[in-house]
Amino acid sequence: MQDFVDYSMESLGDSGQHIWDDYEPSKNFFVSDKIFVHFLQKELSPDAWSFLQPKLVKLGKLAASTLNELSISAHMHSPKFVKRDLFGRDIDNIIFHPSRHELMKAANQTRMMGSSAITFLSPEFEGQQYRMGYALPYILALSDSSVTNIIGMKDAFGQIMKRYANPELQAKFIENDYLLGPENASEVCFCFRENAAGLKFDAISTKAIPLRDGVYKISGEKSHCENIHAHLKLVLAAVPSENNEKPKLSIFLIEGNNKPGVSKEFEIKNLDQKLGMHSLPVGDLLFKDCTAFLLGEEGQGMEILEELMKVTNIWSSISAVAGFRRSLVEAYQYACYQTYDGNRRLLDHPSTLAKLEALNNQFVADFYLLWKTIRMMDKTGPEKPHLESNLNHLIPLIKNHCVNSAISGIGQSMKIMESHGYMEQGVIPKFIKDCLALPLLHQSSIHTVSVIVKNWAEVQDISSFFEPLTSSLEHFPDLELLKVELKKLLSHIEESRYDDPDFLDFNADKIMKNLIMYIQLSMLLHQEDHESAAWIHPAINQIKANFLGQNSLLALPVGAQKIIGQLAWGF
């Protein structure tokens, strides 16, 4: 491909010299990422690759330069909330640092973010649209998590609109908005939660009163609204039922207009000060007889919400895995150029090599877990209903794991960079804060893992999901013990549904950790080829060691060149 990068260390100079003065960061996040380039070239058709590759190269260069600088600036300047203007009028204005506007404008220039955009532009790529649609966001996420998730919300909105909105609404809010150009692209706000209701959606008090066909008036207060300033708002509200029946939870679309002098239908009550994701503001909204359009049918709210969460969970996973990759690369590049004990490179220190190898194995397992799941999304269809069911259980599990794994991996990468890793003007503090804020976006809590595991336990035949893996293990004699342990684990999960209701809650974390490792193993076993063996084979060995309790065994040191091959990142 164009601009191919030499992955050897020969260009880094003599390791006996202090070479900080020669340090240069990556110039293209796509061209440098051999793991991602290899995966896409192997997965996509020649036509799809030819169509996508120039766009990835262009965005990769932008992400490594302009977007990277804007992201750091936006992160260090949180948005400000102005309730009233000079004359005492309520304006409910959220003021962003100029870097945030430039960041969104630059990101929108690609005009091809997410599967809904790919389908709209190029229907001939059916069957590859998810891998193609999520490739650009992955490169973007190597620079910034907030904007990636903002575009992810718009992607989820687009998919929901295509399925549940009438043609008139689709034309107004999807096709026309998309064709307006990057400067005028609308953002989307999600308003699903209420402080009083907590995680109980049945307790939602926001009411939707019908006016005419498909048009309602909404009143109520929503908390932790994501991307609160956005022009378009999706709201979860209850439509009262007759005869004291249960209210019908439904999803509504609101087109906002809160300019001074205009009668306001909603009010921004406050802006939350959260840990990360500063370009994606969160706060509370009060709706006052606000005109709204029903999406789908009355009572379909939870169904639509689950579909929205499935899409945004993938975007969160992309942000987490990309943030992990970028942080690991930052630590690796730091180790290449920093010295210790006089003139020795930090990269040559055995403890640095051991840590980089362990972190890269962790990243590789997460990378293929994510992208093979996205590949599975491309294979779904009416003739394969079991895949859709599997994905409904798999995606929440993957999102939860990828975020937690990224937080751990980014923290360890920070330690490799010593005191430099903790400086706010660097990228690693930004990424770890953004990953810590990801659970806020999608209603994760301490009980999330328990809920996910219980959903897995409710699968009628959980063993069938793992049948491809158990069949694969038969071809690897050294993995026979893993096959036995997998059957034991699945048996425990199935039996616990009837024997002890607290068993799954108490062991949820352990069960999820083991399920993830088995799924990761299944994703990796048949992905290895001559080129990718350099990074996949060590990751497989690490998973096997985790299962067999061999992590405490002593090992011979490895050389820097081997670790460089595993990291597969060009300067």
Automatic annotation (TrEMBL):
<dbReference type="InterPro" id="IPR052904">
    <property type="entry name" value="Acyl-CoA_dehydrogenase-like"/>
</dbReference>
<dbReference type="GO" id="GO:0003995">
    <property type="term" value="F:acyl-CoA dehydrogenase activity"/>
</dbReference>
<dbReference type="InterPro" id="IPR041504">
    <property type="entry name" value="AidB_N"/>
</dbReference>
<dbReference type="Pfam" id="PF00441">
    <property type="entry name" value="Acyl-CoA_dh_1"/>
</dbReference>
<feature type="domain" description="Adaptive response protein AidB N-terminal">
    <location>
        <begin position="27"/>
        <end position="115"/>
    </location>
</feature>
<keyword id="KW-0560">Oxidoreductase</keyword>
<keyword id="KW-0274">FAD</keyword>
<dbReference type="Pfam" id="PF02770">
    <property type="entry name" value="Acyl-CoA_dh_M"/>
</dbReference>
<feature type="domain" description="Acyl-CoA oxidase/dehydrogenase middle">
    <location>
        <begin position="189"/>
        <end position="290"/>
    </location>
</feature>
<protein>
    <recommendedName>
        <fullName>Acyl-CoA dehydrogenase</fullName>
    </recommendedName>
</protein>
<keyword id="KW-0285">Flavoprotein</keyword>
<dbReference type="InterPro" id="IPR006091">
    <property type="entry name" value="Acyl-CoA_Oxase/DH_mid-dom"/>
</dbReference>
<dbReference type="InterPro" id="IPR036250">
    <property type="entry name" value="AcylCo_DH-like_C"/>
</dbReference>
<comment type="similarity">
    <text>Belongs to the acyl-CoA dehydrogenase family.</text>
</comment>
<dbReference type="Pfam" id="PF18158">
    <property type="entry name" value="AidB_N"/>
</dbReference>
<dbReference type="InterPro" id="IPR009075">
    <property type="entry name" value="AcylCo_DH/oxidase_C"/>
</dbReference>
<feature type="domain" description="Acyl-CoA dehydrogenase/oxidase C-terminal">
    <location>
        <begin position="299"/>
        <end position="438"/>
    </location>
</feature>
<dbReference type="InterPro" id="IPR009100">
    <property type="entry name" value="AcylCoA_DH/oxidase_NM_dom_sf"/>
</dbReference>
